[in-house]
Design brief:
Elements: E1 5-10, H1 14-25, E2 30-36, E3 47-48, H2 51-57, E4 63-66, H3 73-82, E5 86-89, H4 97-110, E6 114-116, H5 126-134, E7 138-146, H6 149-152, H7 168-181, E8 185-195, E9 203-210, E10 215-221, E11 229-236, E12 239-244, E13 249-252, E14 255-259, H8 264-278, H9 286-297, E15 299-303
Parallel strand pairs: 1-2, 1-4, 2-3, 4-5, 5-6, 7-10, 8-15
Antiparallel strand pairs: 7-11, 8-9, 9-10, 11-12, 12-13, 13-14
Length: 308
């Protein structure tokens, strides 16, 4: 068996504690040996205030997992790549398409791996949905991704700042799935609801067409109360497909054909270990490009002020 990859984690927040640390603790492909964060700490390993201090003090690190907000990720990724460390990027991989393109070039130049980790693409029923749609004639599709930001991102002001994505922070999860299971698609119109006291949208209404002319709609809402909605539906010649629960359950004409517990982050780290040991990278920018297109084409609609 190969030696565990010595990894450090940067940005110790909610997603790290909920997902990254449990996944790494159970994965024999890794040994977590350091962490860096302005505020959080990981118990029983050395902690540092920033990535530069971590890399300087722990030169044996082979890889880093970057989990800070996307506005700050480029500089940390560049520092790690130039130090010849493999880099795992939490989603979204960066604040802009161009900076991630530059990181791809830097990874190739320095002979290390770069991974853009779209966790929802690894939800358990996604591959089953892809196989079903690949065997059917799709007539139309719709994305309904509605959740409560106050529940999932309490007091996280970075998501409302420029580059923080607003409702596209969860919406890009839906895009990471549909860009994997549907034909190539393009935005034709969008309306983005901006609270009058925020710099990022709280809701979005987007229309796409696929490369073969099929309509796809997307409704995003970040103020949904009660049950949360993470659904992708498609009308096909083989029945109505519903991929629900963020990609965990697949039903066709109301009959559940795939349903299991999610294990997205363990699968992400498994994939990262594969590309590190293969000497390759995995950086699909299509979901991020769709977000950029929505901001470029979208009509800004100012709505009532939103308060946490």
């Amino acid at each position: 068996m190969s030696q565990p990859i010595k990894i450090g984690i940067v940005g110790v927040g909610k997603i790290v504690r909920d997902q990254h640390l449990p996944a790494l603790a159970k994965d024999q492909d890794y040994r977590l040996i350091a962490a860096a964060s302005r505020h959080g700490k990981v118990e029983n390993i050395p902690n540092f205030p920033d990535i530069e201090a971590m890399l300087d003090a722990v030169p044996e690190l082979e890889a880093v997992s970057l989990c800070m907000p996307p506005q700050f990720r480029y500089d940390a990724a560049r520092t790690a790549l130039e130090a010849k460390k493999h880099v795992f990027l939490e989603k979204p991989p960066g604040a802009t398409v161009s900076e991630v393109e530059n990181l791809k070039a830097l990874a190739a130049k320095n002979g290390v791996s770069l991974f853009a980790s779209w966790h929802s693409r690894y939800a358990p029923a996604v591959e089953a949905a892809r196989a079903f749609l690949g065997s059917a004639r799709i007539k139309s599709a719709a994305i309904n991704w509605k959740e409560d930001v106050r529940r999932w991102h309490p007091n996280q002001e970075w998501i409302w700042a420029p580059g923080g994505f607003g409702v596209f922070d969860p919406g890009i999860n839906a895009l990471s799935i549909v860009t994997h299971i549907l034909p190539p698609m393009f935005i034709i119109s969008a309306i983005l609801d901006f609270p009058e006291n925020r710099a990022a949208p709280v809701a979005a209404h987007v229309s796409f067409r696929t490369s073969n002319g099929l309509p796809v709609t997307m409704e995003l809402d970040w103020l949904q109360t009660g049950p949360q909605s993470w659904d992708i539906v498609a009308d096909t010649d083989k029945g109505a497909m519903v991929l629900s629960g963020g990609g965990s359950k697949l039903a066709v004409d109301g009959r559940v054909v795939h349903d299991e517990l999610e294990a997205e982050y363990p699968m992400l780290y498994r994939r990262f270990a594969e590309i590190v040991r293969a000497g390759s990278s995995d950086v699909d920018l299509t979901p991020l490009q769709h977000v950029a297109d929505a901001f470029m084409l979208g009509k800004r609609n100012v709505v009532e002020a939103f308060f946490d």
